Prior knowledge:
The protein is built from 9 helices and no strands. The chain is an all-alpha fold. It has one domain (2-166). It is globular, with a radius of gyration of 16 Å.
Amino acid sequence: MITGIFGRAGPSQIVNDIYNLIVQKARDPKFYQDLSVPDTIDGRFEMISLHVFLVLRRLRRSSKGASHLSQALFDYMFEDMDLSLREMGAGDMGVGKRVKTMIQAFYGRVASYEEGLTDGTQSLEAALMRNVYGTVNSTSVPVRRLAEYILKQDEHLHALDLADVENARFDFGVLP
Length: 176
């Protein structure tokens, strides 16, 4: 399918570039130091998922629609997850099952973040507590700051020209 969309086998350079922007932002040390996101495999997955969600949301809100690009980005994300698990030494037999679980988790996060952005800050904060901070043994995490970041990034991405997003000519801005 990707061949038909982008004219060659494998992910396009644009999808690669968009995904690299996402991963670069997801690795920002401020998430882990200032916002208490667990600096673990799960915490990193949460930050990548959150930023992929924001980009997919921006693409979905376009009048032209960007379903092919959205699907390619989703596919690329989970191909990367598969490769990362294999590089970390996960056995071949278990990788597929773990990736399937990650895909299901991602869909759940998309639904809860979408609901949170629609229903307001409290709903978004609850989703973040459940997903991002679910393994943290403290109730004093700066969930409100992370929710503010998401709201600002959603607005920021929505204000960008769609062509800039589709061509990986954007950034996520700074953490509050």
